[in-house]
Specification:
Shape: globular
Oligomer: single chain
CATH architecture: 3 Solenoid
Number of helices: 1
Order of helices and strands: H
Number of domains: 1
Helix content: under 10%
Structural class: little secondary structure
CATH superfamily: E3 ubiquitin-protein ligase SopA
Length: 95
């Protein structure tokens, strides 16, 4: 699945992208609020400045994903340890 397909499905109302292989895709500046990415592989994907509010990222693989400037207000982050060099500049308050 490519980024345009995900965004088109989102526009049509789909919010379930559990366990999808979405590595190395560009979602920069995208509105993905409320999406369920449980167990999805987002390795190396660009989610910078995207709206991920109320998104479920439990068990998602985020290694190397760019979350800089992303809105993570209300998001459920991965269980266990997370290593992501771009997580520090993410926005957890939605301001």
């Amino acid at each position: 699945m490519n980024a345009n397909e995900v965004l088109n499905r989102y526009a049509e109302g789909q919010r379930n992208f559990r366990t999808e292989d979405l590595k190395n895709l560009n979602f920069a500046n995208a509105n993905l609020s409320g999406v369920d990415f449980t167990g999805a592989n987002l390795t190396g994907s660009d989610l910078s400045s995207s709206d991920l509010s109320d998104t479920n990222l439990n068990w998602a693989t985020l290694k190397g994903a760019n979350l800089g400037g992303a809105n993570l207000k209300g998001a459920k982050l991965p269980n266990g340890s997370i290593y992501n060099e771009f997580l520090g500049s993410a926005n957890y308050l939605g301001n």
